[in-house]
Write a structure and sequence with these properties.
The complex is a heterodimer of chains A (418) and B (214). Chain A is built from 10 helices and 8 strands. Chain A is an alpha+beta fold. Among the domains of chain A are: 111 residues, no CATH class; 120 residues, Histidine kinase-like ATPase, C-terminal domain (Heat Shock Protein 90, 2-Layer Sandwich), CATH 3.30.565.10. In chain A, the strands form 2 sheets. Chain A has a 5-stranded mixed beta sheet. A 3-stranded antiparallel beta sheet of chain A has the order 1-3-2, with helices on one face. In chain A, a hairpin with a 2-residue loop joins strand 2 and strand 3. Chain A starts with a helix and ends with a strand. Chain B is α/β, with parallel strands linked by helices and 214 residues long. Chain B is built from 10 helices and 6 strands. The longest helix of chain B has 15 residues. The chains are: A alpha+beta (418), B alpha/beta (214). The interface between A and B is medium-sized, with 37 and 28 residues.
Chain lengths: 418, 214
């Protein structure tokens, strides 16, 4: 345009105009390059925006120019410098208002995308508020809103994040980092608008993730404690039987060997001593059986049979005699034993049925009584919740159904890992 | 009697060996695991093996498995298995599986005379089953056992432990004849075939009690 004006005024010849135009083009290209690479300000979206504006403007201005040239040419004769001058003036006159108008149209088009993306985030927040959505879905919502399926939300703890990401701040602290496709960095307006809108939701998602993380840690620690406890029971039972108890028997034998040839008073004193040793052995055996019945070494069925045998209420054991991993057998025994003990102690049943089967890769067992029902788990780690803890420690579940007056049913599922 | 002892607790093994020697038996071998036991039985050909059930390396039922093995290779050797705790089913299987098997809790040793009786019985092809096992079987067995009189039940308990008629008569202060009558009544009420063979009778009783429990 400047070139045209200069040519019109006859101040420079056309060759110089060509050079100036070429230089100007080069300058524009260089300017765009610097703007994109150095400042990021001139985002791709802005470039596309401007490209659209000028792509629309150019034919319009050209049309005005050609229209005026032809119109004036018809009146004043072709090749008239006046025609060119008038056309240029007309084109220049319409250029500015036309540009503003086209810019508004294109802006509205671009803003529409941003507005829609922000609205999608706002809508998700509203659904969350109503309880219709899960806060952990925020990553998917952002991915869809920004058109980047690869987008992931991270909640880095101090210095944990190892990939490039865009930070999100809320209430004065960084709450999340969004890992996204590189091209989104060139649409900073869109990205910023959407992430600003999502910030409170991301803060909530972060709390959610932190609670989940801590809960998982607590669960893992509980599982380790229960599993270690079971291992400790095995060790303790063995120590009692193979250590203390053996020593007591050996002591008793030593006392017995002293007896022959002693005066009657000494013999009867040693008899009394041996009787005490025998009582101590019996006591130790009872303690060891409470710690872990040695019969568990022979399998779950064997141990349950023994349990049934000592129960004051008839217990019907319908468990197959198959062997399972020791941990599973132990856990299953302690859970079923607890359930039977609860039934006998609290439900006043006329009989208890312990049933079990290995289905797929899990042991499914149940303890059913015909007692008074109405049992419910206590939060203080009482019998029922203790069973559930033990089952969960081995990846299993315990379900207690206990309608008042209709007996109690305890169902146990334990993965066998086979 | 020539005896081999397998027991991993040294204190107990030496005490037991001393006690048996005191009482005029010959301890021809002592060891602490099942592998050594098998070798000792092969080299000494004893009358009786007294073995702990849990021994190295795994501390599960090495002694019991050795017992079954010895029974195959040396059918004439009596085998008494000692345990720290009661394992009803295994005990019944072992004792009911044939002549010359015994299963006792270790502390029965302290009742020296009964223990020595059991040793002699097992070495002679008889049975010895721990009273606790028998009590557990009887407690679990319902119905027909409940119809037994107190005396019949007492006789059944001792019979199931492997006692001979004479020993039962001595313990309950009855004549052998009365014991036989009680035994006949017990077999009648439980619907078992009467047999004069002592061990077959024990096995019938054990099989019965094992079958009707719970």
């Amino acid at each position: 345009m400047v070139g045209c004006c200069l040519a019109l005024l006859g101040l420079v010849d056309m060759a110089a105009v060509d050079v100036a135009v070429a230089l100007a083009q080069l300058l524009v290209v260089a300017g765009v390059y610097v703007a994109i690479t150095e400042h990021g300000l001139y985002g791709i979206d802005r470039m596309v925006n401007r490209a659209l504006v000028y792509a629309t403007l150019t034919p319009l201005v050209a049309l005005v120019f050609v229209g005026v040239t032809v119109g004036v040419g018809l009146v004043a004769g072709s090749g008239s410098a006046w025609a060119t001058a008038l056309a240029t003036a007309a084109a220049a006159a319409v250029f500015l208002p036309l540009r503003a108008r086209v810019q508004r149209l294109v802006d509205r088009r671009f803003a529409a995308r941003r507005v829609a993306a922000v609205a999608a985030v706002r809508d998700f927040a509203a659904r969350l508020h109503r309880g219709d959505a899960d806060v952990t879905a925020i990553g998917d919502v952002l991915g869809r809103a920004l058109g980047d399926p690869s987008l992931r939300v991270r909640f880095p703890r101090d210095g944990e994040l190892r990939e490039p990401a865009t930070g999100v701040r809320f209430a004065g602290a960084q709450v999340a980092a969004v890992v996204h496709a590189p091209w989104l960095a060139h649409e900073p307006d869109l990205l910023r608008a959407v992430l600003d809108e999502a910030a409170p939701t991301l803060a909530m998602a972060r709390l959610h993730a932190e609670v989940d993380h801590q809960l998982a840690q607590v669960r893992a620690s509980r599982d380790r404690v229960v599993q270690a406890g079971q291992e400790e029971r095995r060790r303790l039972e063995r120590d009692l039987h193979d250590g203390a108890q053996q020593r007591l028997v050996a002591l008793g034998i030593s006392l017995r060997r002293l007896q022959p040839g002693l005066p009657p008073a000494a013999v009867s004193a040693l008899d009394a001593a041996v009787a005490q040793v025998g009582d101590a052995i019996t006591e130790l055996r009872t303690i060891a059986a409470g710690v872990r019945p040695a019969r568990l070494d022979d399998g779950l069925r064997a141990a349950l049979d023994d349990l049934a045998r000592t129960s004051p209420v008839p217990v019907d054991v319908r468990v197959p005699d198959t062997r399972l991993p020791t941990d599973v057998e132990d856990a299953a025994y302690f859970i079923l034993c607890e359930a039977v003990t609860n039934a006998v102690k609290h439900a006043a049943p006329s009989r208890v049925v312990v049933a079990g089967a290995v289905a797929g890769s899990a042991l499914r067992a149940s303890v059913v009584d015909d007692g008074r029902g109405g049992a419910f788990p206590r939060a203080d780690g009482g019998g029922l919740s203790g069973m559930a803890d033990r089952a969960r420690a081995f990846g299993g579940t315990v379900l207690v159904t206990s309608p008042a007056g209709a007996g109690t049913r305890v169902e146990v599922v334990l993965p066998c890992g086979s | 009697m020539r005896i081999v002892i397998a027991e991993d607790a040294v204190l107990l093994r030496e005490g037991l060996a001393g006690l048996l020697t005191d009482r005029g038996h010959e301890v021809v071998g002592r060891c602490g695991d099942a592998t050594a036991l098998l070798a000792l039985v092969a080299s000494t050909e004893p009358d009786l093996v007294v073995t702990d059930i849990r021994m190295p390396p795994d501390f599960t039922d090495e002694g019991a498995r050795a017992a079954v093995h010895i029974r195959r290779t040396h059918p004439g050797v009596g085998i008494l298995v000692l345990s720290q705790h009661i394992e009803t089913r295994f005990a019944v299987q072992l004792v009911a599986s044939g002549d010359g098997f015994g299963y006792l809790l270790k502390d029965r040793v302290l009742d020296v005379d009964s223990f020595l009786d059991a040793l002699v019985r097992v070495a002679g092809g008889g049975s010895a089953l721990d009273p606790v096992v028998v009590t557990a079987l009887l407690r679990a067995a319902v119905d027909p056992v409940a119809t037994l009189t107190g005396r019949e039940r007492a006789v059944l308990e001792l019979m199931a432990q492997g006692w001979s008629n004479a020993a039962i008569a001595g313990a309950l202060q009855l004549t052998e004849r009365t014991v036989e009558t009680h035994i006949g009544a017990v077999f009648g009420k439980l619907g078992l075939p009467v047999s004069s063979h002592e061990n077959r009778r024990v096995r019938a009783v054990l099989a019965y009690l094992d079958a009707v429990r719970v």
